[in-house]
Amino acid sequence: MRLIIISGANGALGIAYLNYFKNKTDIKCAAIVRSEFRANIPNISVINADLLNAKKIKAEIENIDLSEISDVIFIHPVGKFKFEKTGKPEIDENNDGIDDEIYESNVETFLNVVNPLIVKLGKEAKNNNFISLAICAFGSISDRYNIRFWHSYTKAKNKLKNFIWYITQKDSYRGLIRGVFVNVSTTDTGNENKLRPFADKKYWLSCKEIVEQSAPLLLETSVQWKEIDIYKPVPDFNSNYYTNIGKILKKWNKEMGKK
Q: What domains can you pick out in the chain, each with its CATH number?
């Protein structure tokens, strides 16, 4: 039996993953939500906890019954985005160049689940119950261009990616921990629509497309580490767009309804 744990499961992408896995045999699903679970999906275990409450999350993870589980898959489609018009973080009390809210939302929420999961599986291993773990997190295809208007977001996502890659390469975890990092283009979610209400959504990804292209990798235990890009090809697109700061600012201001 496999256990799928999805954080931020009230979000569009989290719900899409739950819908994908819900009817598959030998799979149980658990949804981590801060408030009431709003999706009408039966037979889902619900964990009510704020992802920033490390103590609460740890307790919930420790209480998960793994007696019939051979493989745990943690999917983390969580992470706040800010458009940093000045190219600098809005809040940066520790002066690390990453907006504190962006770091908390993208990185701390992730670590608060993954770290106790690894500890729990380590305890199981000491009892000769070896349970594998797959970890999935998300970034933006644009992150590789280091765009000044979302430096904090890119740096936070790179920390996630580097953490997952590093832990999958450790000799002590080889064969037990695998990772998938998914870089996506603009996705049609509630938050994205609120941020950019005047954008042309013709080439935006659907959550279903992301799930269908990434979920099979998570189920494939032979994949130790994989980074993939998921996007809809835009006719005549030129990557030089990402180096044209003025063009990016003009486009985003228009899409956000700002001058």
A: 2-256 (3.40.50.720)
Q: How far apart are CA 34 and CA 47, in angstroms?
A: 8
Tokens of 165: 């890659």
99 burial level (CB within 10 Å; 0-12, 13-18, 19+): buried
Asked if 30 and 44 count as a contact pair (C-beta separation under 8 A), the reply is yes
One digit per residue, the tens of pLDDT, for the chain of length 259 reads: 999 999 999 999 999 999 999 888 899 999 999 988 888 888 899 999 999 999 999 999 999 999 899 999 999 999 999 999 999 999 999 999 999 999 999 999 999 999 999 999 999 888 888 999 999 999 999 999 999 999 999 999 999 999 999 999 988 887 789 999 999 999 999 889 999 999 999 999 999 999 999 999 999 999 899 999 999 988 888 888 888 999 999 999 999 998 6
Phi, psi for 174 (deg, rounded to 5): -60, 130
Rounded CA-CA distance 127/81 in Å is 41
By C-alpha distance, which of 207, 195, 206, 189 is closest to 254? 195
